[in-house]
Structures are given as C-alpha cells and as structure tokens.
Amino acid sequence: MIELSHIDFYFDKRPVLLDISFNIEEGEKAVLLGPNGSGKSTLLKLIAGLLFPKRGKYLFNGKEITKKRLKDKEFERAFRKDVQLMFQEPDIMLFNPSVYEEISYGPLRFGMDNIKERVLKVADFWGINGLLKRPVYLLSGGEKAKVALASLLVMEPRLLLLDEPTAYLDMKSTKSLCKLLKKERFTTLVAMHDVHIARYFGERFIVLSKEHRIVFDGPFDRFKESSLFEEFGFFKEESEACLKGGPYER
Amino acid sequence: MNRDNLMLILLFLCIIILSFINNIAFLFGYFLSITVFFLIIRGRVGTLISGILRVLPFLVVLSFAFYISSLLSKGHPYRYLVILNLRVFDMVLSLMFFREFANPLRALSFSSTLTYIFILSYSQIKTFTELYYDFSLVMRSRMVLDTSYKDRILFLRKMAGYFFKKAIARAEDTAMAMKARGFFLYD
Q: How far apart are CA A6 and CA B138, in angstroms?
C-alpha cells in the first residue's frame, strides 16, 4: 500500500529524516517507535501528503505522492479520503461549532451517504453521544481526542495514521482503541514512544533512532531480543511483567 | 436570516453610528441606558463591572497618550477625552448587549468560513489563556522569593518569545490538519 524509498527530509538545514525506506502492505498494523525528536510526527505528515521529501520517493498504491500530483484535485480528493491522520495535539484538528458537525464534517465534505447513522455509530463507540450538541472548544483534552478519533474513523479510511493517540486518553479508551484497530481491516501506522503500550497497537515495529534513521524493522519479539531494546531505555524484566499483567491483555 | 444575524447587523450599525457621533449628551445617554438595562433589568452588576474594568487599562493608556500629545501641541484635550472615553465604553457595552442576546456562532452562520475562523480564533485564545495561566504558575514555582527585577523581565521576555513561536507552529499545524481533512478541496 505504501512504499517509501530513501526518503530524506530537512527542516531548514537540520535533518529530520535520513534514508527512510520501508513498505506497508494493505491491512497491516505497524507501530512507529522512536525517542522524542526522532522524526516520527514528520514521517506521518509526509505519508499523509502534507510535507514532501527533499530526496527519495513515496508511493501510495503505486502512485508517487508529490506536490504536483496533489495539485490534481480529483486525485487529492481520493487521497485525502483514504488517508486520515490524527495529529499529536487533537485540538488543532477541530474547527466546527459542535461535536456532531465536527464528526460529520469529513463525510459531508467527501459526499458520503448515511451521515447521521455513521456519526451516531462512531459517537456511540466512543461514548460521546451526550456531547454531540456541545461546542468542541469547551471539551476537555480527553474528550477532544475522542472527537478527533471519531472524526477520522467515521471516514472509514484505508490508511489510518495516529500520532501518539494515547497521550490524552484514559486506560479504558486506550483499550477500546487497541481493540478497534485490531478488529478493523484498515491499515494503521501508529507513532509512539512507549513500547509497553505500542506492543498492543501492532505486530510490526519500525524503530527510528535519534539520528533520524530506521534502526529496526520487524516483529516485536525480535525487537525485544535485540540490543536496541535496552539501548532505547526499555527494561526486559519490566517489559515482561508489564506485558503479562498489562491492561490490554484480555 | 435568524435573530442572531440581525443582532450582529444591529451591533455593526451601533458601532458605525457611535464612531461618527460627537455629541456628549447622546453618548452619555447611550451609556446610561445600557448600564440601566444591565443593572436593573438583567441584574448583571458583575458582568458590567468586569466589562468596564477590562477596558479601563487600555483607555487609561490611550487617554494619557492623547493628553500628553495635546499638551505638546498646546491644544485643549478635555472635551475630546470625554468623547473618546464615552465612545469606547459605549462600544464595549454594545458588544456586551450583543453577547447577552445573541449566540456569536449562529450570528456568523451566513458564512461557514467566518464560523471556522471564529472557532479557530476562539480556540487559540482559550489555549493561550490556559498557557498563560500555566506560565504564571511556573513563574511562581520556579522563581525563588526576592528574584531580581532583571530576572523577572528576562522570564517575561522568554515567555513572549515562546508564545510567538508557539502561535506560528500551531497555525502551521492547524493549516495542515485542515488540509488533511479536505478543508481546502473545492466543493
């Protein structure tokens, strides 16, 4: 579904991503792990077609995503509908007068049908039915995160990109999100820095180093056994205990 | 057109009229009637006082600057100062009157773009007000007692720099988020 080959990205002259290459297949659940400032958010924005690499190629469904290609409005419309990104701060994604309008914004914009049923279904899942008439800017951080997630999930995207989605969520909501992502067939790439929670968001781990390069790409079990695991500040014993008795196990 | 749209038009009309009238009796009468409305009919003493207090520092600075410039040019500023102050109070009270009876979101409903701008601005203001509050707590917790005046100025300068950078970064991210959600696509 997505193919990145030898991507470099710079902010001014400061490198943010260096020689990034990986593929993600349709339906795959991957986790993007890395320390603060390693370039996780930038990589997600790049995959969402909001930033463009200085060098290298990014292909979505076999088509290269470039500034020029996204100027084709029909293509952009289809691409934006398929790829949904949740930003680290959900606050900035919300700009509609009420929660209902916020969630229904995407389906309306992209001409989807049965909008009301879709909104009610997703609001019911997140337990935000009671908030539908409330102005979004008056909600708490956690409620805003749920509204942002609902606004993305209602679009039934093919690729869902989540940037630290658990930052504002309580344990129960994090668990619901984990379950949902496992159950749904869409492809997901979740950026995180906490390996203990990341484990439940996907089987495949793509790990960025603070030097902005990919240092690991493979299943969690292999990552756990690699020397990188402790290098990243994770402790095996602690991790085992956390995984065995963790809240997401059942 | 709904009632809130009409109230918005009325507010604009009031502001335009108040900007062109220089009659002290009229401006004072306007001030008095809205004050009476808030005090007697709505019983909103707190709202009235807080509204006036918020605009007072701005008016003091403005009046003082005008007074100094008049003295330098050997003019007589008193009449103009009274008009200026009454006019600003009248405009603030008109805005409060509007807020009392109209929902600003519905008032802007004739243009979805304006509604989005209003919500984004309001949300920014709210976020930055909370941040400012946090900063003031940080200042209290991180600065030991008897911190020098110079240190306080330095802290405030850093805070202003942070707010400026944060505002720009946030605006860029907001634009990206809107783009990702299809806001800039044609209809």
A: 43
Is A21 in contact with A5 (CB distance < 8 Å)? yes
* Residue A81 identity (one-letter amino acid): K
Query: Length of chain B, please?
Result: 187
Cα of A95 to nearest chain B Cα, Å:
6
**Angle at CA of residue B38, ends B32 and B40, nearest 5°:** 90
CB A73 within 8 A of CB B186: yes
Asked whether the beta carbons of residue B181 and residue A80 sit closer than 8 angstroms, the reply is yes
pLDDT in tens, B25-70: 999 999 999 888 888 877 778 888 888 888 888 888 988 888 888 7
Q: Which residues of A touch B168 (CB under 8 A)?
A: none
H helical segments located in chain B: 3-20, 24-36, 45-72, 78-101, 104-107, 112-142, 149-180
Of A80, A96, A135, the CB nearest to B185: A80
Residue A232's closest CA among A89, A38, A45, A69? Answer: A38
- As given in the structure block, the two tokens for residue A228 are 């990188």
Beta carbons within 8 Å of A199's beta carbon, 6+ residues apart: A31, A220, A243, A246
Token pair listed for A124: 């019911």
Residue B175 clears pLDDT 70, i.e. is over it: yes
Looking at beta carbons, which residues of chain B come within 8 Å of A94? 123
Tokens (6 digits) for A132: 């539908």
The alpha carbon of residue B9 is apart from the nearest alpha carbon of chain A, in Å, by: 21
Where do we find the tokens 């902005």?
Answer: A212
For A171-201, letters b (16+ CB in 10 Å) and e give: eebbbbbbeebeeeebbbbbbbbebebbbbb
pLDDT tens digits, A62-88: 999 999 999 888 999 999 999 999 999
- Phi, then psi, of A21 in degrees rounded to 5: -140, 125
Q: Is the overall model pTM greater than 0.80, yes or no?
A: no
Q: Which amino acid is at B62?
A: L
Which residues does B57 contact at the CB level (< 8 Å), separation at least 6?
A: none
Listed in sequence order, the residues at least 6 apart from B130 whose beta carbon sits closer than 8 Å to its beta carbon are: none
Q: Quote the ipTM score.
A: 0.79
